[in-house]
Write a structure and sequence with these properties.
The complex is a heterotetramer, with 2 copies of chain A (about 170 residues) and 2 copies of chain C (about 500 residues).
Chain A (H helix, E strand, L loop, with lengths): L7 E4 L2 E11 L2 E6 L2 E11 L2 E6 L2 E9 L5 E6 L2 E8 L1 H12 L7 E3 L4 E5 L7 E2 L4 E7 L2 E6 L4 E6 L6 E2 L4 E5 L1
Antiparallel strand pairs in A: 1-2, 1-8, 2-3, 3-4, 4-5, 5-6, 6-7, 7-8, 9-16, 10-12, 10-15, 11-14, 12-13, 14-16
Chain C lengths: L3 E4 L3 H14 L2 E7 L6 H5 L2 E6 L10 H11 L3 E3 L9 H9 L3 E2 L4 H8 L1 H10 L15 H11 L3 E5 L9 E3 L5 H16 L4 E5 L5 E9 L5 E13 L2 E7 L6 H17 L4 E9 L5 E7 L6 H8 L3 H9 L16 E8 L1 E2 L5 E2 L2 E2 L2 E3 L6 E5 L6 E2 L6 E9 L2 H14 L1 E3 L5 H9 L1 H5 L6 H4 L1 H4 L7 H24 L22
The chains are: A mainly beta (about 170), C alpha+beta (about 500).
Amino acid sequence: MYYMSSIELKCGERKVPVEIIGKKDNRLHVRLGETDYHLDIIKVEKNIYSILLDGRSYDIEVAATEMKNTYTARYLCHSYSIEVLDAETRYMRSRLSALGESQENTISCPMPGKIVKIPVKKGDKVNAGEVVIVVSAMKMESEYKTGKSGLIKEILVNEGDVIEANMALIVLE
Amino acid sequence: MYYMSSIELKCGERKVPVEIIGKKDNRLHVRLGETDYHLDIIKVEKNIYSILLDGRSYDIEVAATEMKNTYTARYLCHSYSIEVLDAETRYMRSRLSALGESQENTISCPMPGKIVKIPVKKGDKVNAGEVVIVVSAMKMESEYKTGKSGLIKEILVNEGDVIEANMALIVLE
Amino acid sequence: MIRKVLIANRGEIAVRIIRSCREMGIGTVAVFSDADRKSLHVRYADEAIHIGPSPSAESYLVKEKIVEAAKRTGADAIHPGYGFLSENADFADLVRSEDIIFIGPQADSIRLMGDKISARTIMTQAGVPVVPGTTGKITGEKEALKVLNSIGLPVMIKASAGGGGKGMRLVYNQKDFLKALNSARSESMAAFGDDAIYIEKYIQSPHHIEFQVLADSHGNVIHLFERECSIQRRHQKIIEETPSPIMTPELRREMGEKAIAAARSVNYEGAGTIEFLVDDNLNYYFLEMNTRLQVEHPITERVTGVDLVKEQIRIAAGKELGYRQEELFQDGHALECRIYAEDPDNNFMPSPGLIRKITEPMGFGVRTDGYVYEGYEIPVYYDPMISKLITWGKTRDEAITRMLRSLEEYYIMGIRTSIDFLKRIMEIPDFVKGKYDTHFIETHEKVLFAPYDDMPLTEDLSMIVAYLEYLEKAKIKTNGVPSQPVSNWKIQNRNQHLVRW
Amino acid sequence: MIRKVLIANRGEIAVRIIRSCREMGIGTVAVFSDADRKSLHVRYADEAIHIGPSPSAESYLVKEKIVEAAKRTGADAIHPGYGFLSENADFADLVRSEDIIFIGPQADSIRLMGDKISARTIMTQAGVPVVPGTTGKITGEKEALKVLNSIGLPVMIKASAGGGGKGMRLVYNQKDFLKALNSARSESMAAFGDDAIYIEKYIQSPHHIEFQVLADSHGNVIHLFERECSIQRRHQKIIEETPSPIMTPELRREMGEKAIAAARSVNYEGAGTIEFLVDDNLNYYFLEMNTRLQVEHPITERVTGVDLVKEQIRIAAGKELGYRQEELFQDGHALECRIYAEDPDNNFMPSPGLIRKITEPMGFGVRTDGYVYEGYEIPVYYDPMISKLITWGKTRDEAITRMLRSLEEYYIMGIRTSIDFLKRIMEIPDFVKGKYDTHFIETHEKVLFAPYDDMPLTEDLSMIVAYLEYLEKAKIKTNGVPSQPVSNWKIQNRNQHLVRW
């Protein structure tokens, strides 16, 4: 007779339903997958939760990322990227996959920086492994290669531009 | 031909109009009373503004207080309590004074703590300077005295209660 | 060896003890009251056990709850910190009766030193000078008057069970004596449940100088030199330093030996402090022994390099002292300022509350031992000390200038603190010259509590900043949550069409 | 005496220099580029002057703009920090030609030591051993091959104008030689505008050990012992310590004397560092001299107690050294870890960005020299080092365990940092034993880059916390701004009627 939560959490390849069974002050009963947790949990600082579980004390950091409903959590040297899959997210997902769209034709750079060089131009044919963009950040230059072969459909940035992380830079056909 | 701002700032007994004349990025032209300031000003942290004026660097802290439109600002050892008098505030003020209401019959305590003792009871006649409440905080007990004589109309707290700062504790007739 | 330590304390000292345990690879258990669920020691320890409601009397002072928590978590030792149960002999006994190591001296040593009158007697026997005064507890007025006549005015009346300035009265005139006696007794009764008092000759222009000792269970005792603690307000230390500006090498050697003799006389084990009063002629008198770690222990750590908490743990584990007397020396100069949540401009009224922001000083020669953080609400139930700022310098002058710049770097928003007051002390010429006694604060009251000079520019800039904050708030109210918590502020200009830049 | 210093730098070193100026009562002027308006050095200095666009080449490297800012603000001295213009002889000349004090050596000393080949020659003349190799710059392939044959493989090819690992190539096999030569030359040309290179015998299992020297304008030169800097990644130091685990008192004395001789040979003034390569048999060879303050200077400060920035300023003001060689000793052990904004799990990719939260370690024996704060956005234009964590211990073991607990206390959110990587190094048995050379990172690659063990409980708790954060966010969206930024979170439970607690 439990109401089934429609929310799932995704961490790496793992995907499990989550449900809050009860709460009172900072005591929380939560079910994650098959496991029931009874936690003493309280947000102590911006982005930090203190958890007491079986007498042990855990400080866990959490921060939203640029990606919707995706969070980074950290406990000591353990970092996790966690996505909250709610009804909306799942709907968007299914729609995206129904449309057959994929962002894999986009080349981006995971670090912010300045575009030092774009050794290709629109219309060029590039092979997988070929350097298509050189980005400089903090006195280091990094070369970014295309993962697949194809024609350069569009170059969205210019040399000298300062870019954010994960921005689309080059689109392949 | 300047538009006159309807906002005044109050700091201690000083009351001066303030007006933003212009701004561009972090450059701000502001008129405070008779003085025009051209500042390079930017909020660097929550509650902290960095100001460059004539090449000098000032870090000024500011925080809202529990009182509406009232802020505490601090530069090194200098603290200021500043009230922003906007149309709404002034309207409330004039209404209050029109009603002849005054909160001076209320005894409060400027520090949070625990009520240790209330040596008076409802209906008692008290004289100015008489101790009416004893509050304990951080291992120190402080006695609070009434500033004027009168009858105790109401006692709003009990011994043992934990109180916030500036809460009304006792009302005189 | 000890593998898990329960810390029967809270606040900065609990955090500080956990740090040393961490460095020794020892597990830690915090205990906490209702008010302390968010306290840093709970978050920082490996384990944390709730032990009751907020008032200390129902949590941190309940011996049985602490011992129960230790047994439940399998802690093999308990560190009491300072305050709370740290000088409670019954607690030490209870802990040991449960086969748990008490990180501190034997209960008997605590008892002997805890009673000021028995302590006096023992010190006299051990050849340690004491202040002229009563040798027995006084409970009657007649007896008190007799004592007064024998030692002469001025005198200090002190609670026998006392500490921390409670139940203390200084009497200069005969006519004030009985009133002071009775109020000291009732204060003592209220604070300690015991109205026995004793009377001592009052030393004019006194210096409060204490010696740190370490003693192991094998009979080795060493001292780690002095701490000068004369800067006090209402008998509470606020600034400490080492070396003392008035100390000479000869006096240091002699007092160090007396401190060791004092510790030996009660078969002391662990870290302890012998407090002395020293007058202007460098006569010194035993004042009391603190049978625990002191608040101001970090300055000794800084000049000797010895981690006192680690030594306490090693001693409790039955090891021999890690240092011999001749290996120790004082390198440079260390100062400590105690940062309190209080309002110096308002008669030092306690100022508990929410920490909106905290920026701690950093750099060479600076140590902060604190426990509050942004978003933490300092509870009303406990001590107002929120951190200790320790600076070191090759010379005393360097330690002072470093303290001054560190106090200037120290930002705590949301509550009032003693930081500005401490800054003022650092700038008083007599302090800079090292010319001070325990009356320093009264002597320099005028300067210390003078209003600050007007700074018209600062006032104007502050007003502008308040206005911008007001505008930002208004904007958030209108537009909802700001997209980024720290994005550049944008002024909501109600008259944007009139802006001519 | 100097009354106002302009700091021709940014980041942690600018802040660190301002601190010492403060303590000396000296006014400070910061300079800043577009990207640095919010940088801590701008906020912390008394004055701040904007000097141009974000790229260093248009701001921090423009000599004339710096000198202009000094003249405008009436600064009577310029401190160059490290990097940027700190080893630029022309800058030193320009500064001095404007009657401003340059806090650093004479331009000639910089020039002689800045050119690796002239430095070699001078060192050889001064009796300081050098690594076998070329004595002149090499620009041709034929010449290079001739040198190669004379000293034998393996060899190191280095940019003559170089530094920081740029333009360096190690060659083990004859067949790789020419390719390496040419790529080193083109890299050098790109980085320094000069493609002259030189070739040295490559020392196997080398230790990078450097000596700190101080020299005044009166001919007094002292050394402040060694720093062991062998823990490097891509020729960049990441951990330094003093004393060096392989040093002997005899070798220290001898190398110290050579370091002083090296400084004397170029009439050095100010603080400088003589870098040596030391092989397993404790043979040592002059590597280069850094004619400025080093990043790792704090460990020397900690064990000697000498504030090196203050000494630099005193020397520049024409004073005699404040210390004599025989007064100095190494007290205990100090370690430094450099904290970088980079992702060790992702090939150390730079990780600039917004600092969401930072918690710095505190307590006994811990120093942090940093410059980032909550809400600060680390720019992409400059060095990725965001802070230095220095720990001290009575022993090397204590310094290491203290470093480990300090790294565990260090929380920086919003960007990736090298903190976890540094923690791993501290736990490698060979590091703990002090058995390492400059190949340490490669040697222990497997362990250092192994994936962390799965922690199923931690993963579950992290997921729950992420979910609560999601719920809180959803609630704010629905209900507007939360009334108190740090109020207890409340879970928005969509099925509140079903909750059965």
